[in-house]
From TrEMBL:
Molecular function terms from GO: DNA binding; DNA-binding transcription factor activity
Key words of the record: DNA-binding, Transcription, Transcription regulation
Family: Belongs to the LysR transcriptional regulatory family.
Ranges where the HTH lysR-type domain occurs: 8-66
Organism field: Rivihabitans pingtungensis
Listed name of the protein: DNA-binding transcriptional LysR family regulator
Name of one Pfam family that matches: LysR_substrate
Source species, domain of life: Bacteria
């Protein structure tokens, strides 16, 4: 291959990143506004160019990046970030105002700091107004036009306010029953539970799973923060239904001895009306940070 052809098209790299972040070709095509065949062709050209498969495929579905794909994914994210920063610098240098963001509390702990730093570099005159709340409340605020971008959690088919085409999946992961190492909380009957307040999708999924299995649960702890929930579990007080990414050292999964829980999805949507000009890039920054651990 001659030197002048040794380049990677940004559209190919964006397709790769979006497929990994969204979990498949179909979701990536919807996110990028392209056909699935067009996305497939971009990945084929990328793989032909690098001479290596970049995605693992199992029974026609994407099963994450290959080892070579993970290396390329890191370069792709950096190249796309620089491209998008350069574009924003010249395309909308005078953008100013306020962008109203709603998100679950745990994202403040997991990814918000790097997202905020990158957003501030891109849009130094746009201030973020952030609200952390239950997902059902964030959904209502987005629908009422009181948020420009909302990130929320849903489990299975609930809640209904988080279904529909307006919401797109950013991350999907298993939901676990967690107790403390050495604890016998999983053997309690009724099952001692640590949960968030009424309206939490994790709480609803846990109670539904117990009911369907003919088991009863007793709420021993009600909290409003991830930190408090972890402390309740680690103290041996109760079990908590949480996504795998929220487990802390000293917590263990009890899924092998309790009713199965559905997967948890992190979803996002714009508010009603015309999207805020910077909301799409903020959405992309969250997707980028969330995809780094995949």
């Amino acid at each position: 291959m001659s030197w002048h052809t040794r380049h990677l098209e940004l559209d190919w790299l964006r397709a790769l990143v979006t497929i990994v972040d969204c979990g498949g070709f179909s979701a990536a095509a919807e996110q990028l506004g392209r056909s699935q065949s067009a996305i497939s062709l971009q990945i084929k050209r990328l793989e032909d160019t690098v001479g290596q498969p970049v995605l693992r495929r199992s029974q026609g579905r994407v099963d994450g990046p290959t080892s070579e794909g993970r290396v390329l994914l890191d370069y792709a994210r950096r190249m796309l970030r620089l491209n998008d920063e350069a574009w924003a610098c010249f395309a909308q240098p005078q953008m100013a105002g306020r962008l109203r963001l709603g998100l679950p509390e745990e994202l403040m702990e997991q990814v918000f700091a790097p997202v905020q730093a990158a957003f501030a570099r891109l849009y130094p005159r746009v201030s973020l107004s952030v609200r952390c709340d239950l997902s059902v409340r964030l959904a209502a605020l987005a629908e009422a036009g009181e948020l420009d971008l909302a990130l929320a959690k849903r489990v299975g088919e609930q809640p209904a306010s988080l279904s529909g085409e307006a919401w797109r999946v950013l991350r999907r992961e298993p939901l676990h029953w967690f107790d403390a190492e050495g604890s016998n909380a999983r053997d309690g009957r009724p099952l001692p539970l640590a949960v968030f307040h009424e309206g939490c999708v994790f709480r609803g999924a846990a109670l539904s799973a117990l009911h369907e299995a003919g088991l009863s649960g007793e709420v021993r702890f009600v909290g409003s923060s991830i930190g408090a929930m972890r402390h309740a579990v680690l103290a041996g007080l109760a079990l908590a239904p949480l996504p795998a990414s929220l487990a802390a050292p000293g917590m263990r999964s009890a899924n092998d001895s309790l009713p199965p829980l559905p997967a948890c999805e992190l979803v996002a949507r714009y508010g009603v009306g015309e999207p805020h000009p910077a909301a799409e890039r903020l959405w992309g920054l969250f997707a980028e940070q969330l995809g780094k651990g995949m």
